[in-house]
Amino acid sequence: MDESIRHHNPNPILRANPLSKLLFWWMNPLFKNGYERQLEVEDMYNVVNEDQSETLGNRLEEEWAKEVERTKGGKRQPSLFRALFRMFGFEYLLLGLILLLEEATKVIQPLLLGGLIRYFTPGSGVGKTESYLFAGGVSLCALVLAVTHHPYFFGVQRIGMKMRIACCSLLYRKSLRLSNEGLSKTTTGQIVNLLSNDVNRFDQAVIFLHFLWVGPLEAVAVLAILWHELGPSTLAGFAVLLLLVPVQGWMGKLFSKFRTKTAKYTDERVRLMNEIIAGMRVIKMYCWEKPFGDLVKKVRKDEASKVKLLGYIRGLILGPFFVSVKLIAFLVYLAFVYSGGILTSERVFVSMALFQAVRLACVLFTPFAIQYISDSKVTFKRMQTFLQLSELPSTEHGRHEKDYSPAKNCRIVIENVHAKWDKEVDQLTLQNVSATVESGRLVSIIGPVGAGKSSLLMAVLNELPLLEGSISVTGRLAYVSQQPWVFSASLRQNIVFGNKYEKAKYDRILKACALNKDIAIMPHGDLTLIGDRGVSLSGGQRARVSLARALYMDADVYLLDDPLSAVDAAVGRHIFENVVQGYLKNKPRVLVTHQLQFLKEAEQILILKEGEMIGKGTFKELSMSGIDFSSLLKSDDEQTDKTASGHVTSTSGSHHLQRSMSHEPQSKLHESSRHRLHSTSSKSHEVINGNLRFSVHESMRGSELSLTSVGTIGDEFSAEEVQLPEEEERHQGTVGLSIYYEYFKAGAGIIKFLLLVFLCLAAQGAYILSDWWLSRWSNEEEARYSALERHNALLAEGYYATNITIPIVDTNFNVSVFSGIIGGVFLFGILRALMFFKVTVDASQALHNTMFASILRSHIGFFDTNPVGRILNRFSKDIGHMDDLLPVTFFDFTQCALLILGIVGVAGVVNPWVFIVVAPLIVLFVIIRRYYIRTSRHIKRLEGTTRSPVFSHLSASLQGLHTIRAFSVQGKFIEEFDNHQDLHTEAWFLFLTTSRWLAIRLDWLCAMFVAAVSFFCVVAADSLNAGLVGLSMTYAMTLMGMFQWGVRQSAEVENQMISVERVLDYSRLPSEAPLEAPNDRKPPPDWPQHGRISVQRVSLKYSTDTPTVLKNISFTIEAREKIGIVGRTGAGKSSLITMLFRLVEPTGSITIDDVDTLQIGLHDLRNQISIIPQDPVLFTGKLRRNLDPFSNHSDDALWKALGEVQLKNAVEDLPHGLDTEVSEGGINFSVGQRQLICLARAILRNNKILMIDEATANVDPRTDGLIQQTIREKFRKCTVLTIAHRLHTIMDSDRLLVLHDGEIEEFDAPHLLLQKPEGLLRKLVEQTGKTETTNLIEIARKSYENKNRDDINEEVQASNLAEIMRAISQHDVAMTIEELDELRMAESKEKEAENGTGDKEEDIEDAAEKVSREESETKDPVQDIGGKDEDLNVDVGEMDNGVKSVDGPTGETPVGDVDDEVESEEKSKLLADNGKKADDLDVDVGKVDENDEANETENLLSKDEHRK
After folding, report:
1. Of 630, 866, 978, 1410, whose CB is crowded by the most CB atoms within 10 A?
2. Can you tell me the distance from the alpha carbon of 1099 to that of 1144, in angstroms, rounded to the nearest whole number?
3. Rounded to a whole number, what is the distance in angstroms from the first to the last CA of the chain?
4. Whole-model pTM?
């Protein structure tokens, strides 16, 4: 699908001659380009056929299938190792022969060195010519090593790469076939981990496996040679060698064991970080930084303790390796000397060189091989477990889309289906479901949250296994999922989905899905790249892209899982008419919906409840059947007219539906419908999923697709801006010294650092000193031996005495000094390793904590402009490098660097002639390294950038798995995955070849150095002795391999220090304001008491270089007011939330109950405002922690909150109740249930101010009604601000705040705003269509009338209360109580007459009881009556449906807000004023007749005129 990743640049290795391949000359053009400019993807060489992902994947798939077939019915498990061995075994074994040649050369070279040293031994008889031949032989061996080493390493690394590619391809193919049962046994994280970490073991394991047989062979050869030279004392050294191998192997296994434990902690930390970053906005608004911070710190602490242990084990592996040769030599020479042997320079340095050769193979590479074998066993086991997970029944149509021809008589037949997701659960997901969908017919499926609607579609898609019954589908399926799936590619690629692009068809589909306007304003039109998960699109746009993709597939049968919930009224209607009933009208369609106004147009309706089909038929049939249809519709009169997308069904139909239900009296129905209509104040808050998303970039654009401006259907949708993610900042050039300084500062103070430096120098000093002492000792022994020989020769000739002085050699002294030095080497070597790993792991721990603290306190804008993956990368990959790779690489580099300096220094001091060659070699080395580093850095960057798409594609495929399988495009996705893998392989192949290009050149430099040292020794023979020649030559030979390794490690350290640099970048992010204010600025503990919000001259911009989104706005919201916030896309609605929560710091003044919120701590403010966000966010962990992370509430309180949102039963049914584990993203709860859990959170917080971002997307009207009912009841004493995405939900608010372009356009009661013909609200309402406009005006009118009637009642009340207050002032308490009783009785009668149903009788009786109780307890008459006044006000308010205030906008004081704490004089004045206003209005409330609408309207109009 993504053509952009393909380029044509044939690989020159195909045309290279053998010499060019051997020396990697064919790479020269790439290095030239890389030195001159930055390398791009187009510069990389194409993958050769044998490395292609498709080829390797197909071969391994065949071999694995054979393996599975062979083990069927048998006890033996299928083995992935055997399958891979059949593919690569022979090629791998051949490479072992090259390794054998290399190791043989390492054994021969010391023997030639022995001949060279003999030339310097007095009386050896080796001539000058022979010495030159020996020097030439040593030099030739160095060249052979340089030539053989690299083809072997390149060959085995390439095989490791192929194994990795083949396994990745096989695992991806398997993941596309996993059944739901299989998916339940794994996670996306585990699959990504298998493909990212586990398979990487192959890259390393293959390098060392051959040493398991080459090592022992080499050891036997060396033993034979040394036995000849040193006799049985050799066994002392080999005993240590043999002991070291199992010890190191055991350490390796221990390392693997702890590695597995560490991986669990790392997985947990990364998963936790992923959730925290994705849900950061919610965490900040809920003030949950501390519990999540503590959680991460705890997991990281556990992880760090294991990482430190791993570091120490590594230190104990690498430390002894450093000193092992010295220890072996010490024991051998000790045994040899004390058994009477003469320690000559030849013996010393030949044996030393042989031990050096065998040490590498036996002490380092063999334990590595054992470690990687145990690692690989774990990997194979994990991969085999995954490959044996259950699959869906094989459907081959995924690979043969081209052969497809349209089916005739397309249909779906569902017969008596019983099914369940989890075999262990008794309850069925679906039972007794039958239906037939013929061509040209629309079948709608409705039902409450969790009824099994989506599961039925899954059963049709073959995703849900059937227990009974059958489903047959004729024709090709297309499926639109409930949560739209978009992958990271261009918009066109998302829609065309790998099919041939046909412009006419494409344009027709764009128009039908109302996407053309959106595309018109995108930066690159439909070729605009949209980020991972479609992050740069709004929810509505994602839904329409997903729908357009289904249409473009041109399938025969369409399954639509609630695609209309994410779009607004007009777009929803447009899509229904132009797509469902337009473009697809001749095809069988199944539409799951909560938007019940569309049901009339369906040929058949299926009603599901708890998985069972409780009704089937047409709208008319179901209406008359007596089924509990009404509970699904919730409010038949108005909810059907204005649910979900606001498209209006004719009211006559609804009334017909009501009349048909004979079991409910007509009068009661009429009453309940009227009552519901005026009580929707805080009930009708439905959300449209994704319209205002709290995600990347959304805060910058405000609510998406909210109240879209619609004129002519299809052409006039206002387009939405698409904002692309910012490019990640990349540092150029080398890593500065300041980064190294910060790194070591984080891990060690100045004392620790100096101690580390001392240990490093001491270990290296002791190492060189031990060799120098051996040289001195062997020279002494040789001189003594030579003198003795001459002395004995003269005696043999007959002389009785000679004048030859025989030097005295104190062997015991030499042994003691040598023992002390070796002890020092051992001690310092181990201490250096342990100290180094402690410092580096401490640095990693400290830098992680600093970065996490910085991230947690950074501005929300940071999360809006950086994708989750980018931030997560620092916590996973970069911290992983710092924990795992950087310490060992840095240690290795430090050790190599000190050894190299020591070698060159010793060789130069012994023979100053060497410096003549060293100078130009150093110049050459610097040039080559600089030339290499520049290209290497580009390739490292390309390797990183080409790896990401592999995992993005895998992640996207797993998210859209059902869609991919429904569309049968598995073949295309496998091809796409292979393309991504090939691109990464191009970069990895270059990484391997560039490393070899450098290494072979450095080894040639070293071979020249060895040749120079050996020939200069012969030239300067007069001034040298055997010991010094042996010392300098042994050191020079050690340089082979080590030098190129040290240089490559230096480049690797620099590359890995980039991770430190990136972590440090995120440790310095700008921070938000303090969480807690100083004591002198802290608000009172009981603040806020009322919830009055005053905003004066406030402006808001998201950053200095972005436009102002709120422009100098001012408004006041009285306590307990219910405010609706409306406006077109980008008007600034979501910015109001940002402003009130101070997610971005505004300018101006915001006060809540007279406290300036800009001056207090962020937690002081945010803890006092509840929010129900649009997207319900749940975090992994116990359900209890999701409701109450601070454990502030008892279990009873939690159960009560769950009961109030109707979730108590559902949670009680779960095995662990409140301790039930919430899955990643909360997917084990339905979207509706997640929403209810968020509502329960708000209830538990019990704050005076509630913000609702219309949080009822994807829930049925019944659940929606429940949410609104709960909000109305639980928050009636709160100030409620609702951001509206559909107008009908806020038409009964006290006032509407209408925003336009960041400014307040209108702010008044909805009814009054609708009277303005040119008003913005009026225009928005008219754009919803004629019928809906009538409906909305009616809601606003009735709501306004009810509120004004309530106002008048309260005004009369106030007048009566004023009389009571006057009586109190005259101390006539008896009269006061009489008056109060009369007032209570009068109110009771009036309400009964007005309601006609006695709905509120209980409230009045409760109030009466309360007043009576307080009368009996009266002590202070004034205080007591004040209390009654408050109670009475509240109860009257409750009778009038919780509407508390006298029309706020006209400036009258809300009576219901008069609090106990207000002084009685102020009360009297307020009440008297209101009483006066009531008198002035001259309206007799008693005359307002409920059944006489004309009287009602007349009175209202008179009141309006009076106000005006």
Report:
1. 978
2. 11
3. 65
4. 0.68
